[in-house]
Amino acid sequence: MLALFAGLAGCGPLVKIGDDAPPPSLHTLRVLEPLPAMALPTPLLVDEPEAVAELRSPRMAVRTSPTGIEYLARARWVDPPARLFSKLLEEQLRFAADGQVLSFRQIDAPFAYRLNSRLIDFHVDVSDKDNPRARVSLYLTLLTAPNPRVVSVTRVDVAAPLASTRPDAVAVTMNELANAAARQIADWLAAVPTASGRKPG
C-alpha cells in the first residue's frame, strides 16, 4: 500500500475539474489481441456509450469515496473514455463478425440491430484504501432496427488490482480491462438468439 500511494504522490496531487495544466502525455486504448470469429447479430450499429457525468472529460477519473471523484494530475486520455471504448469495441466486433459492424457515425447506412450502452465506470478506485482497483462497467441493450425492440440486456463489469496510480500504469491496466470488457460484450452478443439465426420474438 505504501508503494501504491507513493506512486500517487509521484504523479502529483489529485486535482479537481478546472485545472487546465497541459498533461505531459496523452493515453489511448488499443486492441491487444483480435477477437476470434463468432456469429454476431449483423448488420449492427454500435452507438457511442452514454457516459456518467464524471466520465465526460478526457481526464483520468479517480473514485476516492462512494460519492467522491477527483482526477489524476497532468494525465489525460486523447478522447473521453466513452469515445475511446466505442472505437475499441467497434474494431473488436469487426474482427469477430462475418457481417457489417457500423459506428454511430454511419447511422445513414442500413442496419438490423443497434447496440446502446451506458458507461458507468472507467475509474481508478481508491475508496477502499486496502484494495485499490481499476474498473470498467457498462450497461448494454441490443435493439432491433428500424423498429426498436429490446432483444437482450446485460451488464459488463471488469476490475483488476492496481500496483501503482502513475498515469502510464493506470493506462496499461485500463486498456487491459477495456479489451476484457469488449470480449465479454462480443460473447454476450454471440449468445443472444439472433446470433443463431432465430428471430427475436
In a few lines, what is going on in this structure?
With 201 residues, this protein is an alpha/beta fold.
What does this structure look like?
The protein has 201 residues and is α/β, with parallel strands linked by helices. The protein has one domain (2-16, 43-191): 3-Layer(aba) Sandwich (Rossmann fold), CATH 3.40.50. The chain is 25% helix and 32% strand. It is built from three helices and nine strands. Strands 1, 2, 3, 4, 5, 6, 7, 8 and 9 form a nine-stranded mixed beta sheet that branches. A hairpin with a 5-residue loop joins strand 8 (133-144) and strand 9 (150-161).
What keyword list fits this structure?
alpha/beta; 25% helix; 3 helices; 201 residues
CATH architecture: 3-Layer(aba) Sandwich
**Radius of gyration over all CA atoms, rounded:** 18 Å
How many strands in all?
9
Fourth CATH level, the homologous superfamily: ABC-type transport auxiliary lipoprotein component
Number of domains: 1
| CATH class category name | Alpha Beta
Q: Classify the secondary structure makeup into a structural class.
A: alpha/beta
Q: What is the CATH fold-level name?
A: Rossmann fold
Note the total helix count.
3
Distance between the termini: 52 Å
- How would you state the average pLDDT, rounded? 87
Q: Which series of helices and strands comes N to C? A: HEEEEEHEEEEH
Sequence stretches where pLDDT stays below 50 over 5 or more residues: 9-13, 196-201
Please summarize the sheet with the most strands.
9 strands, mixed
User: How much beta, percentage-wise?
Assistant: 25-35%
Query: Helical proportion?
Result: 10-25%
Shape: elongated
